[in-house]
């Protein structure tokens, strides 16, 4: 299937999810993250979910990261340049939901991309090779291309992988892992 077909399919599948299903699956995903070989790292980039899109709720994962004394980094998106600026998430960080429904830091302590060691990546779909489909704006592919070469890229999904995505481009960045409510998939 093409990216466009997969976007449509998975947006429709997620529309059917109840609040309780989202919370149960998000908790299972966070718990499976405990089995990843990432806990010796310090700087973790985490997306804050777009509730209207029924994205994986990362609150449980945030609690795990805080419990392990990790530095959590969140981003603010510039829709004109398609760039993301990264900020340390602290108790004092003020968040605001932008016009696209994305919770973002208002300001704070900026974190350079080369400090980030692990990135939890939002997605709509992915395939058995680790290719992902997002919303099509290219924010994460651009961000991941700016990261250090050894950054660990982890997708979070409610679903199993598709066999393949037919229109993968050379600019698409593959995942290292995807976590589902059913377990860990390594690519």
UniProtKB/TrEMBL annotation:
Gene3D superfamilies reported for this sequence: NagB/RpiA/CoA transferase-like (3.40.50.10420)
Cofactor(s) this protein cannot do without: Mg(2+)
The organism's taxonomic lineage, starting at the top: Bacteria, Pseudomonadati, Bacteroidota, Flavobacteriia, Flavobacteriales
Record key words, sorted: ATP-binding, Ligase, Magnesium, Metal-binding, Nucleotide-binding
InterPro entries the record matches: FTHF_cligase, FTHF_cligase-like_sf, NagB/RpiA_transferase-like
Protein name: 5-formyltetrahydrofolate cyclo-ligase
Family the UniProt entry places it in: Belongs to the 5-formyltetrahydrofolate cyclo-ligase family.
GO function terms (MF aspect): 5-formyltetrahydrofolate cyclo-ligase activity
Reaction catalysed by this enzyme: (6S)-5-formyl-5,6,7,8-tetrahydrofolate + ATP = (6R)-5,10-methenyltetrahydrofolate + ADP + phosphate
Keyword hit for Nucleotide-binding: yes
EC numbers on record: 6.3.3.2
Leading EC class: ligase
């Amino acid at each position: 299937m093409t990216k466009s077909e997969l976007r449509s399919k998975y947006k429709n599948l997620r529309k059917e999810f109840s609040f309780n299903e989202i919370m149960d699956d998000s908790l299972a995903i966070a718990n499976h993250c405990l089995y990843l070989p990432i806990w010796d790292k310090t700087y973790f980039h985490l997306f804050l979910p777009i509730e209207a899109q029924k994205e994986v709720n990362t609150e449980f994962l945030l609690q795990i990261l805080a419990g392990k004394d990790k530095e959590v980094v969140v981003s603010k998106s510039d829709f004109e340049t398609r760039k993301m600026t990264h900020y340390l998430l602290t108790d004092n960080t003020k968040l605001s939901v932008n016009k696209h429904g994305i919770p973002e830091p208002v300001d704070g302590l900026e974190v350079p991309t080369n400090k980030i060691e692990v990135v939890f990546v939002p997605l709509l779909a992915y395939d058995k090779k680790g290719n992902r489909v997002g919303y099509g704006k290219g924010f994460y592919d651009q961000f991941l291309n700016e990261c250090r070469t050894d950054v660990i890229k982890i997708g979070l999904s409610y679903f199993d992988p598709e066999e393949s995505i037919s229109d993968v481009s050379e600019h698409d960045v593959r995942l290292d892992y995807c976590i589902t409510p059913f377990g860990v998939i390594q690519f």
